[in-house]
Design a protein that fits this description.
Distance between the termini: 25 Å
Structural class: alpha+beta
Mean pLDDT: 83
Low-confidence stretches: 1-8, 147-151
């Protein structure tokens, strides 16, 4: 059961279903991003002869994009700048629970997540942030490599 779900999820990576009856828009949207550039495409049900054919065309197009632009490594994915970051360093953030911490995140291997916190009260703000950055860099070096088609 889980294997079937993983295969189905992999076939739908980079592909989203869009149904907007008010605009008479029904189909699949494909998007792949590489090096700051986005490669979008839309596959409408009507123009492709139905929902199944539109999905098949979207999946084929996504595979063509992957062949052309390549897959990205786990390290590349882990270092990709996202909108949420406030520290200036991917995988390092400031957290306030009952105390304030600088926290480092990384994934040494697929489906395993690690984090390490450094107290601002104990180390001071600058040193806690520096320790979190060092922990993140050490965590990145420990990552097991594999390639993904994600974003």
């Amino acid at each position: 059961m889980l294997r079937c779900m993983a295969i189905a999820r992999r076939k739908m990576a980079g592909i989203s279903r869009i149904d907007q009856p008010e605009k008479r828009t029904h189909g699949y949207f494909v998007r792949l991003a590489r090096k700051g550039k986005i490669y979008p495409a839309f596959f409408g049900d009507k123009s492709h002869g139905g929902k199944r054919r539109a999905l098949k065309a979207a999946q084929e197009h996504y595979q063509q994009l992957l062949r052309k632009h390549g897959r990205i490594s786990r390290k590349e994915w882990a270092q990709m700048v996202r909108r949420k970051g406030t520290s200036g360093i991917v995988g390092v953030r400031k957290v306030t629970v009952t105390k304030t911490y600088w926290e480092a995140h990384w994934s040494p291997r697929p489906n395993v997540h690690r984090k390490k916190r450094f107290s601002v009260q104990e180390y001071g703000a600058e040193k806690a942030k520096a320790l979190a950055i060092a922990a993140r860099m050490k965590g990145l070096r420990s990552m097991v490599e594999w390639r993904t088609g994600a974003a």
